[in-house]
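It is worth pausing here to work through a concrete case rather than discussing structure prediction in the abstract. The textbook approach is simple: state the sequence, then state the predicted structure, then interpret. We follow exactly that order.
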Amino acid sequence: MRHGEEPELWRLRHATIHAVNRRDYSPEQVAAWSPGQVDAGAWRAKMRELNPLVSVVGEAIVGYADVQASGLIDHFYVHKDWQRRGVGTALMRALEAEAHRLGLKEVHSRVSLTARPFFERSGFSVIREQEVVIDGVRLRNVLMARRLSDPSNLAADDR
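Step two, the predicted structure:
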């Protein structure tokens, strides 16, 4: 991520949640998950802390994701207009490379019901289904994890 991209990342996340995740979550749940307003300073600080990888096509940001030193994938969002076009797969590969760089053996994430099939196709397994409460609204998600392959086993073009 480059400094100054934080507002665009918020817009991408917000639009994606409201357009894509509404398949599996009620309007009340979507509104609690991503309200219409954001504290710009807090969001900027959060993005700088996460330091996400950003996927760009032309000059447009089409997705972003992060992996933390703990192995947590906290954010993983693909623009609503770029779903099912390889952006998520490319981000997942980049996250795996970053996880290897960090010396991680496993990654994990709190995955939305909507993203669960993608994460399963990406080799993640369900640890447990869970419920979170945001501003008094209950949302279900799935804690998933994936052991990482040994980077020395990767083909040269996959690194």
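Step three, interpretation. The first strand starts at residue 53 and ends at 57. The helical segments are 6-19, 27-33, 40-50, 87-101, 116-121.
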